[in-house]
Amino acid sequence: xxxxxxxxxxxxxxxxxxxxxxVAQIGKSYRNEIAPRGGLVRQRExxxxxxxxFVKPGDKRFDKFAxxxxxxxPMLSSKVQLEGKPVFTKGLGEAVADGTIANETLGYFxx
Length: 111
Known about the structure:
GO terms for molecular function: ATP binding; glycine-tRNA ligase activity. The protein contains five helices and four strands, in the order H-H-E-E-E-H-E-H-H.
């Protein structure tokens, strides 16, 4: 992720400073692990992908949200969990409108 943030200015310029925009990267990652027997340290290698999506802090509307706002999904909001109620279904448009989902950008990626 650090590479995306370090290159933010370049990526924004490549997008003609238009918001919102996304940047994706893929690469190798390494993790040291202790073997279960004998205490040997081994290194695991795996491929990892990541997307960072940048929006204006004060304006998180997203044009493509209209294509998913009609979808209904199972939800379990924190309020419902605290009340001990079961999972319920709600449309993404309604969930964004009532604040269950914070904004259209998040709603789009959930859909």
